[in-house]
Amino acid sequence: MSVPIPEPKIFACKQSETLAGDIAKAFGIPLGKVITSTYSDGEFQPSFEESVRGSRVFIIGSTHPNSDHLMEMLLMLDAAKRASARHITAVLPYFGWARQDRKDKPRVPIAAKLVAKMLETAGATRIITMDLHADQIQGFFEKPVDHLFASTIFLPHLRKLNLDNLTIASPDMGGSKRAYAYSKAMESDVVICYKQREKANVISHMELIGDVKGKNVVLVDDMVDTAGTLTKAADLMMERGALSVRAICTHPILSGNAYERIEKSKLEELIVTDSIPLSQESKKVKVLTCANLFAEVMLSVNHNKSISSKFLM
Fold first, then answer.
1. Which helix (H) or strand (E) holds 216?
2. Given 128, 148, 168, which residue is the final one in a domain?
3. Kind of pairing between the strands at 202-209 and 189-199
4. Shared domain check, 164 and 118
């Protein structure tokens, strides 16, 4: 006599509750119940308030700093493993600590690999994430990784803008592959910014490779942190004769003086996803939801269907 397989369950880390609620709604089931107990020194303990035994569990949470967000994901994965969940998928709309994907100088960690190992040790049997800072981070995992591209969200929006003389731009050399993929999809020109840094988040010099005169430029990047690179690139392109400059960035970290820089810059608008909740509102920042993308992929994973179309630029 066959035993029926329990229905899938979706749980949210606190930092991603709004997005997780939208994903669960699109998936077609309610969010699972979780309560978190907090000690006076800040230590916390999440607890599933319903059985997950034998279930396929999806735990949704971006792991942007502070480190409590990553720790909460690890604790929830461990709790699901110890509660005998059948499959445990860590859904990380934003995979934090990804900029430390290699040793760029002596005696530094490779944090992205460390995080990958911690997620697996905690109990993740599958990872779903979007627009990793570096594609090779997938190789840090021994478990399956579904690496989704936000281009499936951004490209339809970009086509609706119907911009004449469109040019796609990369704010640095590292993003040139992404910029070329967008330019191919949009059948447009591409330009690249070359920058030199004094230190992290501080640019000492920037040059433009390509012509933007009379063009409507769209800068494409995987994340925007302090917005220093984006705003400097936008201002440089307007000086070189661009008609307008917009930016598409998947993950809106927007730390420090980012919002102030964006408001004062020549950027017409910054288009982002809701992989990370905004800390404040801005007239220049437009948010497109990634909830439907994740819900569709999670449904396909649950029913063992192909998701290759979500990998296409």
1. strand 216-224
2. 148
3. antiparallel
4. no
Nearest to 131 by CA among 245, 220, 229, 255: 220
Residue 304 within any structural domain of the chain: no
pTM, rounded to two decimals: 0.93
Does residue 33 share a domain with residue 133? yes
How many structural domains comprise the chain?
2
Residue 59 in any domain: the answer is yes
Walk along the chain (313 residues) and give the pLDDT tens digit of each residue. 455 667 899 999 999 999 999 999 999 999 999 999 999 999 999 999 999 999 999 999 999 999 999 999 999 999 999 999 999 999 999 999 999 999 989 999 999 999 999 999 999 999 999 999 999 999 999 999 999 999 999 999 999 999 999 999 998 888 889 999 999 999 999 999 887 666 655 555 778 889 999 999 999 999 999 999 899 999 999 999 999 999 999 999 999 999 999 999 999 999 999 999 999 999 999 999 999 999 999 999 999 999 887 765 5
Residues 156 and 205 in one domain: yes
Range(s) of the domain holding residue 264: 151-289
Residues 6+ apart with CB under 8 A from 95: 62, 63, 112, 115, 129, 132, 133, 137
Show which of 113, 148, 183 is a domain's final residue: 148
Residue 13 resides in a domain = yes
Select which of 195, 264, 286, 310 is catalytic. Answer: 195
Clarify whether 195 is annotated catalytic: yes
Cα(138)–Cα(267) distance, rounded to whole angstroms?
33
- Specify the 3-state DSSP secondary structure of 22: helix
The one-letter amino acid code at 210 reads: G
User: Is 107 within the bounds of a domain?
Assistant: yes
**Residue where the block lists tokens 């447009």:** 188
